[in-house]
């Protein structure tokens, strides 16, 4: 089994969060200062745990990698939303599509982490349970995506129907034939 960081296993969550905030604020630099602060903070809490600079650096590097992934993901969501809004005025649909794409990316990352955990020899029962939950989430996302596509197709059909009705009504007022009306509807809505 892969060795877990002492910061993750022995440092209280409140102090981990403070440490994470300092990592980000300091641009993931000055590990000597961060380690000194962390050890002082642990001592203030009356904890005998001491963290080495090397351990803090390993933890910080891992946290930085996760932080940068999340930041890139957020930028990607923003870009997806901008591109979708440029093509579409359906804000709810844009948010739904961006959310689905983001969740697919996250689930893929979780699947990769599960494979790595399995190779590291982690608990197979826990891995099986988590894998089952991830598979269910992927299936649910697939169903949501299909429903979303059907909804968009139905909206497009309704818009074409309304446009055809409006156009043929206008043309009827101008005196078009029933054959031309039927032809226009067939072209616009496939009837």
Task: Give your account of this protein's structure.
The longest helix has 50 residues, at 124-173. The mean pLDDT is 81. The chain has helices at 6-10, 13-25, 31-44, 53-87, 91-119, 124-173, 178-189. It has two domains: 1-67; 100-191, no CATH class. It is built from seven helices and no strands. α2 (13-25) runs antiparallel to α3 (31-44), α3 packs across α4 and α4 (53-87) runs antiparallel to α5 (91-119). The protein has 191 residues and is an all-alpha fold.
- The beta-strand count equals 0
Give the averaged pLDDT, no decimals. Answer: 81
Number of helices, where a helix is a run of at least 4 consecutive DSSP H or I residues: 7
Task: Tell me the number of structural domains.
Answer: 2
Major beta sheet summary: none
What is Rg? 28 Å
Which class do the helix and strand fractions yield? mainly alpha
Q: Which percent range fits the helix content?
A: over 70%
Ranges where pLDDT stays below 50 over 5 or more residues in a row are none
| SSE pattern, N- to C-terminal | HHHHHHH
């Amino acid at each position: 089994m892969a060795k877990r960081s002492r910061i993750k296993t022995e440092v209280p969550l409140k102090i981990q969060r403070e440490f994470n905030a300092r990592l980000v604020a300091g641009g993931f630099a000055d590990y000597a200062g961060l380690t000194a602060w962390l050890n002082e903070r642990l001592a203030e809490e009356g904890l005998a745990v001491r963290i080495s600079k090397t351990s803090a650096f390993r933890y910080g590097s891992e946290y930085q990698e996760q932080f940068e992934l999340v930041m890139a993901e957020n930028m990607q969501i923003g870009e997806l939303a901008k591109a979708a809004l440029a093509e579409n005025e359906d804000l709810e649909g844009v948010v739904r599509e961006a959310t689905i794409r983001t969740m697919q990316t996250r689930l893929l990352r979780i699947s990769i982490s599960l494979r790595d955990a399995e190779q590291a020899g982690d608990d197979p029962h826990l891995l099986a349970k988590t894998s089952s939950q991830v598979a269910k989430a992927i299936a649910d996302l697939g169903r949501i995506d299909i429903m979303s596509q059907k909804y968009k197709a139905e909206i497009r059909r309704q818009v074409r129907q309304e446009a055809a009705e409006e156009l043929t009504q206008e043309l009827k007022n101008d005196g078009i034939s029933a054959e031309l009306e039927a032809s226009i509807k067939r072209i616009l809505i496939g009837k």
